[in-house]
Amino acid sequence: MVKELTIDRTKPVMVTGATGYVAGWLVKRLLEEGLTVHAPVRDPDNEEKRAHLDRIAAETSGKIRYFAADLLDEGSYGEAMAGCGTVFHTASPFKTSVNDPQKELVDPARLGTRNVLLEANRQESVKRVVLTSSCAAIYTDAIDTHRAPGGRLTEDVWNETASLDYQPYSYSKTVAEQEAWAIARAQTRWELVVVNPSLVIGPALQDRPTSESFELVKRIGDGTMRMGAPKVGLGCVDVRDLADAHMAAAFLPEAEGRHIVSGHETNLLEMAKTLEDRYGDRYPIPKNALPKWLMYIVGPMNGFSRKFVERNVNISWHADNTKAINAFGLSYRPMKTSMEEMFQQMIDAGMLEN
C-alpha cells in the first residue's frame, strides 16, 4: 500500500475515461475515500457503461456525478472540472490495429490531453493534474531498453523510435505526454504528475471488459497461441497497483515528475506459463516458445511486422521502477495472481470456451 496520503475531501476530483479499465479501479479508490468524483463521459445517460461505478458509489461514502464531454471538443470539460482540486486524465485510446492512426490514436491522445489541460488553466480550483501516460512514451521496442543508459529505461528516457507508420500507439502516448509537459511548464498554478505504466493486467470492474489487455490474454487461452507463445519482452503491472500509484501521484504533496509503474520484467511466454498450473488441463495454454524464425513467417499474418519481430522477440525488457516504489511506497502483486484473476474473470464472463 502507498504512503499516508493528504486528501482534501472538500473539493471534488475529475476523472476522464472513468468508465474504462484503468480508471475504474481509481474511481473505486476515490469513492472509498469519501470523495465526490466528477466523471465526464460521451453519454452520461448510458446506464449500462456506468453500472459498475454506480454500484461502487452505492456501497461507499463517496459520490459520483456524470457530465457530457468529448476529448476532441475544446471547452467541453468546463462543467465537469468546475470546483475540482485534482484532475486525473486517464482517457486515451489503446488500440494495436487501426486504419487511420492519426485520427484513431494521435488526435484523441494529443488533442484530448491539450483540451483537458487547457481547461485546467481556466479553472482556478485545480492544483494538481495526474496524467496517465505509458511506458510507451519512454520506449517502442524491447531492444530500446538495452540501448538506454545503463541498459534500463528510466524516467529521463523518451521514446524516439515510434512514428505514425511504426508503433503508432507508442507515438500517440509520446506526443500526448510531451504536449502535457509543454502546457504544464507554461503556467505556475497547478502541478503535473505523470504515471507511466507498462502493460496493465488483472481483473476489471466491468462484467465484460473490452481493454486491449484482455484481448492479448484471450489469445493466450483461446488456442491462438496453441503452438507456442513468442518471447516478446515487456513489462506488466496489476491494475489495482496502478490505481494505488494514481492515488499517490495525486495526494502525496511531494510527488513530482514521471514515474515508471511496472511490477514485472517478463515476456508473453512467461505470462502464459503463470496460467498453466490452474488452467492448463482445460485450456490450450502455450507451453513452448515460438521460434523467432517462425515468427518472421507467421508474424505478419497476425499483426506482427518483421521489424517488430526483430526488435522484440527473444529480447528481454528492462526498466528501473525504483522511483515510484520509493516515492509512492508502492508494492506489487505477484504476476501469477494478476493473471489468474484476470483469466478467471474472462471465463466467468463467457469470453473463453474450453
TrEMBL record:
<dbReference type="InterPro" id="IPR001509">
    <property type="entry name" value="Epimerase_deHydtase"/>
</dbReference>
<dbReference type="InterPro" id="IPR036291">
    <property type="entry name" value="NAD(P)-bd_dom_sf"/>
</dbReference>
<dbReference type="Pfam" id="PF01370">
    <property type="entry name" value="Epimerase"/>
</dbReference>
<protein>
    <submittedName>
        <fullName>NAD-dependent epimerase/dehydratase family protein</fullName>
    </submittedName>
</protein>
<keyword id="KW-0560">Oxidoreductase</keyword>
<dbReference type="InterPro" id="IPR050425">
    <property type="entry name" value="NAD(P)_dehydrat-like"/>
</dbReference>
<feature type="domain" description="NAD-dependent epimerase/dehydratase">
    <location>
        <begin position="13"/>
        <end position="255"/>
    </location>
</feature>
